[in-house]
Sequence to fold (326 residues):
Amino acid sequence: MLSRVAENLYWLGRYVERTENIARMAVVEHDASLEGAGAGGIWDSLIHATDSNEAFAAARAESPELTESEFLLLSMLNPGSLRAIFVRARELARGLREYISREVWEEVNGLYLFLAYRKQFVASDVHELCTETQRRTATILGLFDNTVLRDEGREWFRCGVYLERADMTSRIVDAKYHILLPPADAVGGSFDRFQWIAVLRSASAREAYQRTGRGEVEGPLVAELLIFSRDFPRSLAFCLQALQRHYQQAAAETPKRRRARAARRVGILNLDLDAGDIEQVVDDGLHEFLDDFQARLIDVDRAITEDIFRAAPFHPERGGAAEGGQ
Fold:
């Protein structure tokens, strides 16, 4: 497979997963705003989770009436908005028609048109907009698994999905700790529990938490589920395990010297998670742990991009890489 095609499938997976994550989190923020339970801070946490603080400040300077919800969902002033991300996903899918099924393309195009027809942002439509986006992205992911050949291209797509999912789960937990953390005397109180319930809902983990028998919702127990559980599909540990498996299959035909750096970084990160526990993470600092995790994911992405997707041709008779890239 051409490295350009592999990279586009990888990013298609990332963009579809990112779209679904933003829609899911926005539903939680919208519902919280209707309940009046600290809604302003919660919307701020979503802006932080998507790393959009500077972009929001710039967009507000250009358009002072812009709200947080419009900025995150439909504004093209925000390159990380739900609409802007899916526009990029659709452009990639259009160039990948040979590698995706007709059913996947039709669903991608349908969601693109669904978002494009919304010329004006209406706050009361947020719930319907986001739940329909969630349904359609889940359909795309399901169709990709059930109508596309289980070949190298499919594995790169899944690598993108799981790397993006791990990154976003870490940002969801970090946003609660970094932005929503209540005063010391409020920890364990009703508002603190509400916030951690919102975190569970943002990660589609509310029912999973209840089924594990952890009892009352408490910050450390929520963090333990979302970081270390090998059974919950959105936890960091589960995503890293899946990323390692799909990467091994995707890069099976890649020369060892090109696949080694990313494989090593994913493997070590997976082992570190396997050896960790929530008590040590809390003692050392949850924010510091998550910040380091996100930085290491960036290193994995960089290794895949530099060593595989955009690696320069190798000429053994010259003893190294040729000038220029592929």
About this structure: Strands lie at 314-315, 320-321. The first strand starts at residue 314 and ends at 315. The CA atoms of residues 23 and 133 lie 6 Å apart.
